[in-house]
């Protein structure tokens, strides 16, 4: 399975704005939290999951999210293919990150807030992998 951007949309009329995503199926989500970086210079990465999947949505502002599918969880190749996604709060897009990927996340606007959803409860499984930000040679 590959990462997928599930497109949302927006409607504006005299009453105000409505953001919606009628395609996103949240039935697998068991928990959620938000990330808000202190600075645009902060880069959260590389972190991922062999078993768990995640969904990301920008609640405020925008984010650049880079993803790589890991080939070997003990010693991954340093030249993995990197996919980049930009998500913003203009529409309620949801980025689905299937199991087997690591992510690198950076806010693109001050005050940006990222909603993160996961399909396992905290502590339900031991499935967190972290790699140094400079580990991979091909970060775009």
Could you give the order of strands across the largest sheet?
1-9-6-11-4
Overall pLDDT score: 95
What shape does the CA trace take?
globular
N→C terminal distance: 22 Å
What is the name of the CATH topology? Jelly Rolls
Number of strands: 12
Beta-strand proportion: over 45%
Largest sheet: 5 strands, antiparallel
Low-confidence sequence ranges? none
Supply Rg: 15 Å
Number of helices: 0
In helices, the fraction of residues equals under 10%
Description:
The protein has 140 residues and is mainly beta. It has one domain: Jelly Rolls. The chain contains no helices and 12 strands. The chain has strands at residues 4-6, 9-13, 16-20, 31-35, 44-49, 54-60, 62-69, 82-88, 94-97, 101-107, 113-118, 129-130. The strands form 3 sheets. A 5-stranded antiparallel β-sheet has the order 1-9-6-11-4, with no helix packed on it. A hairpin with a 2-residue loop joins strand 2 (9-13) and strand 3.
Question: What are its keywords?
Answer:
140 residues; mainly beta; Jelly Rolls; five-stranded antiparallel beta sheet; 46% strand; globular
Q: In terms of topology, how is this protein built?
A:
Layout: E1 4-6, E2 9-13, E3 16-20, E4 31-35, E5 44-49, E6 54-60, E7 62-69, E8 82-88, E9 94-97, E10 101-107, E11 113-118, E12 129-130
Antiparallel strand pairs: 1-9, 2-3, 4-11, 5-10, 5-12, 6-9, 6-11, 7-8, 7-10
């Amino acid at each position: 399975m590959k990462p997928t951007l599930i497109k949302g949309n927006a409607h504006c009329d005299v009453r105000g704005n409505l953001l919606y995503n009628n395609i996103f199926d949240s039935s697998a989500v068991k928990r959620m939290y938000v990330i808000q970086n202190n600075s645009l210079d902060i880069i959260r990465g590389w972190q991922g999951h062999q078993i768990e999947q995640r969904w990301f949505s920008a609640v405020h502002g925008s984010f650049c999210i880079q993803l790589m599918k890991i080939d070997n969880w003990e010693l991954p190749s340093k030249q993995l293919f990197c996919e980049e996604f930009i998500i913003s709060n203009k529409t309620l897009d949801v980025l689905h990150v299937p199991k087997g990927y690591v992510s690198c996340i950076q806010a693109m606007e001050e005050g940006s807030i990222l909603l993160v959803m996961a399909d396992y409860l905290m502590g339900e499984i031991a499935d967190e992998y972290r790699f140094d930000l400079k580990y991979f040679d091909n970060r775009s």
